[in-house]
Design brief:
The complex is a heterodimer of chains A (221) and B (103).
Chain A lengths: L5 H27 L14 H8 L8 H16 L11 H22 L5 H23 L21 H13 L3 H24 L1 H7 L1 H7 L5
Chain B lengths: L3 H13 L4 H7 L4 H29 L4 H12 L5 H21 L1
The chains are: A mainly alpha (221), B mainly alpha (103).
């Protein structure tokens, strides 16, 4: 086991976890930066999406849109109409919905100047940490022993970007063109910061995941 | 409805017309299995909001993210043995490492 004893190792775990979540969030931002607005058609506008993008970052009202999106993807998946793979577990689906929509809101608000780029990065990390704790809380049932085998399906905060990118595209199909442009520019801006963050911490990234370094090689060529 | 877009537009239209998410979901005819899946997804989405608000409040009180996470883990594992707590942080660490490898 990596950690031998909770009381002695909790600080190390928290440091490691913070680093891991920051890295995953940063990598997600970088890979999402490939979204090209010209490839996303505009079908029509829904005011609920625009309102969501405008709401304060932690506004609880945003959950309504997230729930409706989740219902749409689950229903479409059941009918065999979902154009991308949906994870099987509720935790992964919930993380996908929350991370995807949060990233769009953060990108939009950064681009319109409501938050700066550092606040944008912090907001994504904060949200990822909130999701991680929520997932852990749900996995640890009151009165039930914590057993390693029962935690094998534990899912934490960051969905794979391969799933995230096709998920956020439909959202952008239903906003006005200027809003879409704003969001995409914001995503690219956040991606540029992610690129420089990873570049500055490349030794750390290499140590954490040679796989990620290989995947990101094209961004640094 | 024949496409994902049609499904999405239908549900978003209802939200735009003032329906609540709960009513929209009730009207969506899902299999029992998917109803349970969606219930759990929505429970998690609510939990994400609650934790995000808790973190925000903690930061406004001067706590760091790390301190907040520590307090949350302490609360979640209250009354648990040292062994159980150790199992939990190792499970979390494994998931994080797996995510980094598979991303």
């Amino acid at each position: 086991m990596k950690y031998e004893n909770y009381s002695e190792d909790i600080n190390k775990f928290l440091l490691d976890s913070e680093d891991n979540i920051k890295l995953m969030t940063t990598v997600g931002s970088l890979l999402l930066g490939d979204i090209k607005e010209e490839e996303i058609p505009h079908i029509k506008e829904f005011k609920c999406i625009k309102e969501f993008l405008e709401q304060p970052l932690n506004s609880p009202e945003g959950v309504a849109l997230k729930k409706v999106f989740a219902a749409a993807v689950v229903y479409a998946n059941e009918k065999g109409l979902l154009p991308f793979r949906l994870p099987e577990s509720a935790e992964e689906v919930a993380n996908l919905v929350d991370d995807g929509l949060t990233r769009l809101k953060v990108a939009y608000q950064q681009n319109i100047g409501r938050i700066d780029i550092y606040e944008a990065a912090d907001a994504l990390v904060d949200r990822a940490e909130a999701r991680a704790i929520a997932c852990v809380e749900m996995a640890v049932e009151v009165g039930v022993p914590i057993l390693a085998e029962k935690l094998e399906t534990l899912c934490l905060s960051n969905p794979k970007t391969a799933l995230l990118t096709p998920f956020v595209r439909p959202v952008l199909t239903y906003v006005a063109e200027p809003v879409k442009k704003c969001v995409c520019e914001g995503i690219r801006c956040v991606a540029e910061v992610a690129k420089s963050t990873i570049r500055e911490t490349i030794d750390f990234v290499k140590e954490k995941s040679p796989v990620i370094v290989k995947k990101l090689a094209s961004f640094f060529s | 409805m024949k496409t994902f877009n049609e499904i999405l537009e239908s549900l978003l239209g209802k939200l735009d017309n003032g329906n609540t998410a709960e009513n929209i979901i009730k009207e969506t005819q899902l299999s029992d299995e998917n109803k349970k899946l969606l219930e759990k997804v929505n429970k998690l989405l609510d939990a994400f909001e609650e934790k995000a608000a808790s973190l925000q409040a903690a930061k406004e009180d001067g706590d760091s993210n790390r301190k907040w996470m520590y307090k949350q883990l302490e609360r979640i594992t209250e009354g648990r043995s040292e062994e159980e707590k150790t199992i939990l942080i190792n499970a979390m660490s494994k998931v994080e490492s797996d995510n980094l490898e598979k991303h």
